[in-house]
Amino acid sequence: MEYTNKEMQVIMIARQIQNGQRVIVGTGLPLVGASLAKITYAPNCCLLVESGMIDGNPLESPTSVADLRFAHKASTLGETFRYFGLQNNMLRKKSIDLGFLGGAQVDPYGNLNSTSLGDYHHPSTRFSGSGGANGIATYVDTILMMRHQKRRFVKKVDYLTSPGWIDGPDGRAKKGLPSDRGPRAVITDLGLMRFDHKTKRMYLAEYFPGVTPGIIMENTGFEIDVSRSVEAKPPEKESLELLRREVDPNRIYIGKV
Amino acid sequence: MNKLLSLSEAITTFVHDGDSLCIGGCTTNRKPYALVREIIRQGRKNLYLHGAASGGDADMLIGADCCIAYINSYCANSGYSNVSRRYRKYVEEGKLLLEDYSLDIHAALYHGAAMGFPFIAVKHMLGSDLIDKVGISEEVRSQHPKLPPKKYTIGANPFDPGDILCYIPVPSIDVALIHVQKAAPDGTCRIEGAVFNDLDMALGARHVIISCEEIVTEEEIRREPGLNQIACIVPDAIVLTPYGAHPSQVCNYYDYDRDYLRYYDTVGKEDALYQEYLEEWAIEPKDHYEYLEKLGLRRLFALNVRKGLNFAVPLNFGEER
Fold it and tell me: B34 lies in a domain?
């Protein structure tokens, strides 16, 4: 069965979610992936968005974290600060399992930039800003979503909006951050990266069928270890069909074939 | 006490040049656009705008040159503009005092303001450039008494000296602009659907202007007081503005206007186009009703949400999809 890299990316997102998990999804591909997980093998996963809506079940794809579409059959729509309390209380209890974050740049330690390019005071390109990303990166295990391009995978981000592992195994503790959580993976349109247990540096774990470790190295702006990489399992036929028929029938997020 | 005011009276009375301002709603949901357009119509200047999840509301005040400073954590009409275009241009060209926080910080700051606390103590921002890069220096802040003297300070947790915390001053807000579904003349308000930061904004600001879809009687709104959020003693002005959050959405009433949001994105790309847009849609309509007449009944009714779905279904006047 033919499929696009975007579709493979969504399947890869879905594979990271386990049944019963509580996941911060935002909008776009993570929501599409989580919705697919929910109608296949993770029916009891609970989707959260940072505007404060909890366990929404959208019938139509929301375009923002505040979209009324997300509120469909939600559990509660509590005030935003109370939702952030759930994140902050991660120091005392595991209330949220996983959060998805995107950005314009990522470095080898999973530090993310979603603020600006160039000098902060005179940016060449200014973005929307942190949104809720900084707090999610502070308290919750994350999966980072990136387009795999050399200019996005950089040695040092122009602005560090959301802390990853900072500069190595003791990076977070040195800064006063909770040290036992941080980025777990990076999913791109080419493959899945993880972070080395000891060094906390990014390495290639899986490359999508049709992609090679060489292509990944060419599109990464820093040295990346590919020695442990394997080819990813292609999409299951049933998942792919459900994705096209139920989750994104208009192919807004998974793109045209 | 009757708090009903006209749109122009409410802005004339409670929003002044140089005020600090915050705006309720979230990105494309329940944004008090009628109030924002009236501020532009009246030509307010040098506002200190405090954000949270901002969208076209903040972008319009910035693009109409009403703001001297913007305290940002997010500015986009998500799904239609990934980055609000006027905000982006003003920041790239250095035409605005800008400070960055994150949504969590803004939620906590408004809650701090609602509680009357002087600062918040958090772990957020540690290890990030939200600490290492300061947008508005202490020197510049000293010339702007409406801004706290510092972005933050870092210190030990007084009860656990090994623990590092970031201390952030709670801002002093002059006016909160909030759009609700139902308000009574006495000031009691009911927000349906997500409340976001609006209740904290209302409680924390010195003055509160409410725009609403409907005025209901006190007897009606007090039948179920548990469903009301804003107490009668909190708002200063209640302004009736049906479809007053257009082009954003309002729970149980109407959806966001996709075509308008796309149009807004397009006009944001060029200075001249944007000025024409402001003239045509904010300044020339002499009041909110002229703005609605310009949109037309057909367009407004097509935005009404279908009950049970809470989003608009394409409407062909009687023809079902």
Answer: no
Instruction: Provide, as residue numbers in chain B, all residues whose Cβ is less than 8 Å from the Cβ of A120.
Output: 129, 133, 135
Q: How far is B310 from chain A (nearest CA, A)?
A: 7
B269, two tokens:
């790309």
pTM value is 0.96
Count structural domains, chain A: 1
Distance CA B173, CA A37 (A): 43
**Count: domains in chain B:** 1
The reply to whether residue A160 touches residue B129, judged by beta carbons under 8 angstroms, is: yes
In a domain, B196, yes or no: no
Specify burial of residue B6 (Cβ count, 10 A radius: 0-12, 13-18, 19+).
middle
Tokens of A16: 């990271």
pLDDT at A46 over 90: yes
Domain that residue A208 falls in: 5-247
Cα–Cα dist B51/B146, whole Å:
15
Taking CB atoms and an 8 Å cutoff, what residues of chain B touch A63? 28, 78-80, 256
Beta carbons of A131 and B102 less than 8 Å apart: yes
Whether residues A126 and B194 touch (CB distance < 8 A) is answered with no
Q: What distances in angstroms separate CA A84 from CA A27, A79, A111, B33, B225, one per listed residue?
A: 18, 9, 21, 26, 26
CA distance B80 to chain A (A): 8
Asked if A50 is an active-site residue, the reply is yes
What is the model's pLDDT at position A106? 98
Q: What pLDDT, in 10s, does the model give residues B102-121?
A: 999 999 999 999 999 999 99
Q: At what angle do helices B103-115 and A80-88 cross, to 10 degrees?
A: 110
Q: Quote the distance between the C-alpha of residue B312 and its chain's center.
A: 23
What number is the average pLDDT over the span A195-207?
98
- pLDDT digits over B73-91, tens only? 999 999 999 999 999 999 9
B67 in Cβ contact with B45 (< 8 Å)? no
Asked whether residue A256 is assigned to any structural domain, the reply reads: no
> CATH number for the domain including B129?
3.30.30.40
Distance CA B274, CA B190 (A): 35
CA distance linking residue B196 with residue A158, whole number of Å: 31
Asked, for residue A97, whether it belongs to a domain, the answer is yes
State the Cα–Cα distance between residues B269 and B1, nearest whole angstrom: 46
Q: Which residues contact A116 (CB under 8 A, 6 or more apart)?
A: A123, A124, A125, A126, A127, A158, A159, B91
Read off the CATH number of the domain in which A152 is found.
3.40.1080.10
Please tell me whether residue B41 adopts helix, strand or coil conformation: helix
> Is residue A194 in a domain?
yes
Structural domain containing residue B128: 119-169
